[in-house]
Fold each of these.
Amino acid sequence: MLGACTATREQEIEGDVNEFRSWVNTQTNKLEERTEEDWKRTKEDFKRRTEELDRKQESFSEKLKADYQQIKADFKARERERDKLAVDQAQLTKWERDLLGQYANGTSLSADNVEEAYKNFMSNVRARHKTWDQQDWNMAASVLDELNQRKEAFDELPDETEVRIKALQMEFVALKESETANE
């Protein structure tokens, strides 16, 4: 009878750890889509769940203890990744404001002013690029990528506008290549 109870208890504990693994995998999937508030709740839930499992840890087999520690380490690694994403997004937002000015807000961009947004971007790049390092160039390229994606929302731009925008895009690439080649 005691053996059956022990086996059942071990299965229950293993089920708890497997459920925790599944929860961690679900919570850390698509981190870039998580809001700050949602992620904060997830971290609080993680803390509560680990406190609960930590109390049961003395009943874990060595293999289960190792699995559990790995699951916690995986979550912490993903948490660091999420924190870095948040910092990167905040940095990108700052760079967009600096390089795009009034066009940083996606709702202010239209088919009528998209060329102006590119001109504004390149004007700011020309004025600032001499002091940039590789990280700065990467951020500026991210701003340009974002602007390019937003431009795609406009179905038909006049050919002349497309040509002038393409020239500005090429100027950015040429500047970046010439500056980063000198590093």
Note: The two ends are 73 Å apart (CA to CA).
Amino acid sequence: MKRRIFLQGMSVVTALPALSFLLPAQLVAGDINPQTAIEPLNKPHEAWRGLVSPEAYRVLFEEHTEEPGSSELNHEHRAGTFICAACYLPLFESQYKYESGTGWPSFTQPIPGHMGTRRDFKLIFLRTEYHCIRCGGHQGHVFKDGPPPRGERWCNNGLALKFVLETDQLPAPRG
């Protein structure tokens, strides 16, 4: 490879983060109805440490990623609701879960208005990270390679979720 081509390529890679600020800041996370908007908790991340396991805390509040294939939720196919492991806000309905082959629980869409998004450059290229709109807990990343009709893959850390069967009552939100 010629040095000039290499340097031009590197300049494009370093400019990508700056160019992304010209893009819209939020990926569509469902239609948000102002009458049902979720009020974010004003609770520091450290306050969740005693309420979730150490592994879940690292994923939710230190933005770590669990090992692919390690979550029992990969094999969860019953009817129910996936809730935030920290604050218990319902995040996904089981009808939108699918097998993506990635090793993490994947969904085609979240419950409208229950996710927030932000840009993530930790792996150099632009990704969209999403988090629970109520407690701010990191859930995973959304990609544009999912099945029709939305074409979205909401790739979630299993440690950041709990599953509640459709026949069981959802727990009261905690905060």
Note: The first strand starts at residue 80 and ends at 84.
